[in-house]
Amino acid sequence: SHVSERTKICQKVETLLKNVHSGLPDPLTDAAKCCLVKGDYLYFHYGCDGQDDRGWGCGYRTIQTMASWIYLNTSTVQNQTRIAPSLPQIQQALVTMGDKPGSFSGSREWIGTFEASLVLDYFCDVPCKVVHVRGGGAELEQVAVEELHQHFEKHGSPVMMGGDGDNSSKGILGVCTGDKGSYLLVVDPHYYGRQLEKTELQKRGWVAWKRVSSLDQSSFYNLCLPQTAAKGI
């Protein structure tokens, strides 16, 4: 069943959209600095592989998007038939590593940035840096934005962001800073439904530039930053 599950994922993956942010205009005409994801990735979202994970799978989907980037942009894992681990494989891996109890496998429990770092190291052999950003606009504008600029310049891989008050996981594909603050390029895993064209996803806001000031100011946030440059990409 392990093989058939893998084949099933690969067949589904062929229908996934690549680089859903391409063609999206920059949020600022006079940006001082914009840094974006480099290379290809696939957009994973609720239900995209036939598993209905609405309400709990957003963290897993963002991890899959990150894993697809690692697979598509690094030579080290090219020989594997897997583009990204499935939700059951992610859960089983966390049980195997001892991070979660056996009952976690097959559950509908959420996972966050810490689990993302474990899973990407386990499946992709890529270490991650996890950065904790205390709530509030100043911390987000300074710490998170600076970390993201450095990350996209050096590594270029998608980032996962999640928090406590704002506990919906999101992928971050870029950061743009101007005089009046910064914007994050957010790819949202919460979309559920039939395959849309990327222009339609952009129009509906599933991939969009969001002002940092629009984030939940009372929530802390964690960033999971895959240290992909260490792999000699």
TrEMBL record:
The keyword Nucleus does not apply. It comes from the Eukaryota. One of its GO terms (molecular function) is deUFMylase activity. Keywords: Hydrolase. This is UFSP1/2/DUB catalytic domain-containing protein. Residues 34-224 form the UFSP1/2/DUB catalytic domain. InterPro entries: Papain-like_cys_pep_sf, UFSP1/2_DUB_cat. Belongs to the peptidase C78 family. It holds the Pfam family Peptidase_C78. It comes from Poecilia mexicana.
